[in-house]
Amino acid sequence: MASVLTQGDGLHFRVRIGAVLLAAGQGSRMGNQPKALLRLQGVPLINRHLIALSDVGVDEVVVVTGFYHDQIEPMVQSFPVQVARNQNPGAGQPSSVRLGIETLGDKFDAVIMMLCDQPLVNANDITALIAAFKQRKRGEILIPMVKNQRGNPIVMSGKAISDILSHSQNMHCRKYIDEHPELIVTFQTDNEHFVTDVDTLEDIKAFEQKWGFKLDLRDVLRASIGAL
Predict the structure, then answer these.
(1) Stretch among 11-15, 184-188, 192-196, 204-208 having the lowest mean pLDDT
(2) Whole-structure pTM value
(3) Does the structure show a pLDDT above 80 at 7?
(4) pLDDT digits (tens, 9 = 90+) for 69-91
(5) What gap in Å lies between CA 201 and CA 149, rounded to an integer?
(6) DSSP letter string over 16-65?
(7) 9 falls within a domain
(8) Residue 136: exposed, middle, or buried by beta-carbon count in 10 A (0-12, 13-18, 19+)?
(9) pLDDT tens track for 82-141
(10) What is the residue range of 133's domain?
(11) Structural domains of the chain, count
(12) Neighbours of 117 (CB within 10 A)
């Protein structure tokens, strides 16, 4: 169900929120392992993110797959999501971002751009982002900022998404943000969930030491071997 936004005149309208969840990467810095299938407390990260997005009432979700699509897509079949498979994931994350927003379209008031390798981002964090987006006085792009470090997910307005889609395939979210700094508004927070991700095996060790949670790589390795 969409969120309700109150206007100054007391009227209400529903805010339609979409999300793009990126899970197309090769995980080359992690020994070519699908980070989306890392398990935290027994649950794959991609499932944790889809549960969180469902809990906050996001209207539509597009999951972008690429490398390891044969392992990741079965994991999301039980969720009411669209799957967009990047046929050329080697072109990098911008190509997956572009595919995701093209699949989602420009019919939403806000779009959450979400990465699959942030273990701690949960429904409360997403709710806080959405609230900050609604309460902003200006801007079309909300970026969480933790101690001067940019975080993720980000939230983009429907207007920004429409503008991106009106340009050529070479235009994607990061490029658009870089070209339009005047549209950025920051969500200042001490919540380190927004700046915690895992790209390498060393990151996994550091994550476990700092947060006390174990990220299980064994099932990922097993799935990878089984796919050979």
Answers:
(1) 11-15
(2) 0.89
(3) no
(4) 999 999 999 999 999 999 999 99
(5) 22
(6) -EEEEEEE----GGGTS--GGG-EETTEEHHHHHHHHHHHTT-SEEEEEE
(7) no
(8) middle
(9) 999 999 999 999 999 999 999 999 999 999 999 999 999 999 999 999 999 999 999 999
(10) 15-203+215-227
(11) 1
(12) 23
Q: How many CB atoms lie within 10 A of CB 80?
A: 9
The DSSP H or E segment spanning 209 is: helix 201-211
DSSP string, 92-160: -HHHHHHHHHHHH-S--SEEEEEETT-TT--HHHHHHHHHHHHH-SS-SEEEEEETTEE-S-EEEEHHH
In a domain, 95, yes or no: yes
Q: Establish if 8 belongs to a structural domain.
A: no
Distance CA 173, CA 53 (A): 20
| Tokens (6 digits) for 33 | 């392992």
**Residue 65 exposed, middle or buried by CB count within 10 Å (0-12, 13-18, 19+):** buried
Per this entry, what is the length of the chain? 228
3-state secondary structure of 68: strand
